[in-house]
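Figure 3 (text version): structure tokens given as input.
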């Protein structure tokens, strides 16, 4: 993921922050790579109604 992030930065010449968002049906297992993910979206997040 780190390599892809840097390749994207080099190819697009962006100066903006790049965030890795993980979309999953089951969530994210915590391990040495899970710290690279900026945000996690699960099916529960997509299909629950927001209380405004």
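Below: residues designed for each position.
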């Amino acid at each position: 993921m780190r390599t892809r992030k840097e390749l994207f930065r080099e190819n697009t010449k962006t100066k903006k922050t790049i965030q890795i968002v993980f979309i999953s049906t089951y969530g994210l297992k915590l391990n040495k790579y899970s710290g690279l993910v900026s945000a996690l979206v699960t099916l529960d997040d997509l299909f629950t109604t927001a209380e405004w």
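Residues 2-47 form one domain.
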